[in-house]
């Protein structure tokens, strides 16, 4: 058991766990991952079961959908992929009426699928405060609906696992430039304040859909294309001294400033980019909507999602990102770009080459992802070194983790001396979640790194962060 490889795992794990418990990187550095939006407005899309299976062989481990499609909820059960589900805009008013409406929604649409399906958040509406699709929105209904859903989750003991939030468009801002002086549109500021109170109280994230593409499209003369494309050659200076090399960072910081301007600067409200992407095709005149640009933007976006980088204003705030979108959706209304944000076509072929294997994590043989294509390097075994790790979810219930730990170190056959013995290399930090991570990872590596070997009643999480990229480990690994 104590081969040099397992030793290396242990060493890596110590450092991995160390980053886990460093105050500023808690639950971010070790679990940085890539989310994707899975919209279904197409008549040629593969069945959800197939989508779920294939996503499991990629670095994507969070999927956001736009409804509670039961077929999708079922398909993602026991996959290790977290799901963000949604209340459609048209249902927000109903759920805002009282908690029984919220409970009816939850119990008919969500409860049948959990815990097998890992639902981690409910997005209430989409761009609800700025949409005009469903008539004039009633801003008050939004926060009431969110409160009702949260109350129902509390009553059922699910509020720690399932967070309630709502994705906004950038149009909630009165202005976004310069980033440090951005504010919310005055007519919705009061609603946003109520919303921020809710997010602080419930530990939920502020979601924003941010598209440098549209900013470029509307001002191609003034916006530098590389700046919009997440490049790093342009420098845009904010009057407060922040220097921006790309527009997405500036957009995120504009949202941050607007939040601060309402007096929430001292609260820890995390920002999630719930949608961002670039279309590969458009109508005549959509000159930037090309496959090359889409590949450039989305490759960089995926790299960014996996990095632990913050923004100039908050360098240590890891930004959670959901790429828009998984598929081209041929039945979407609007201009051609709307139907061409996908990484994949309906038939499952790549629209352009974006590597979703763990290449960006470094070190591993690349797998190719594509519907109808077999994964080239199969289920593990022959890989050069560990490219994936299994760790305990930071907020998993301690009781369950203890049971998992007991199983791994007992019937599971893991050698747990390093964590049980006070002088063991992995005894510190002496926390159940840390010890469980050690044991779960050992078990996962022993059994060939199949996703089902990292389920552990929903408490396990496959992470692709390559510890050899972190300072100090390269030497140990070589
Ligand atoms: C909310 O929707 C549910 C399910 O469609 C329905 O039974 C209920 O009557 C609605 N409640 C209100 C207040 O509209
Ligand atoms: C800028 O981007 C290039 C190409 O992606 C990369 O090689 C380089 O390291 C980047 N420079 C900085 C300062 O991030
Ligand atoms: C925020 O925190 C700082 C430092 O702790 C304090 O000086 C400042 O007054 C606080 N601001 C608000 C709005 O609470
Ligand atoms: C703990 O480890 C030390 C050093 O390897 C060893 O001498 C000791 O016997 C171990 N204790 C137990 C309880 O296994």
Automatic annotation (TrEMBL):
One of its GO terms (molecular function) is glucan endo-1,3-beta-D-glucosidase activity. This is glucan endo-1,3-beta-D-glucosidase. It comes from Ficus carica (Common fig). The keyword rRNA-binding does not apply. It catalyses: Hydrolysis of (1->3)-beta-D-glucosidic linkages in (1->3)-beta-D-glucans. One of its GO terms (biological process) is carbohydrate metabolic process. GO terms for cellular component: extracellular region. Residues 388-474 form the X8 domain. Keywords: Disulfide bond, Glycosidase, Hydrolase, Secreted, Signal. Belongs to the glycosyl hydrolase 17 family. It comes from the Eukaryota.
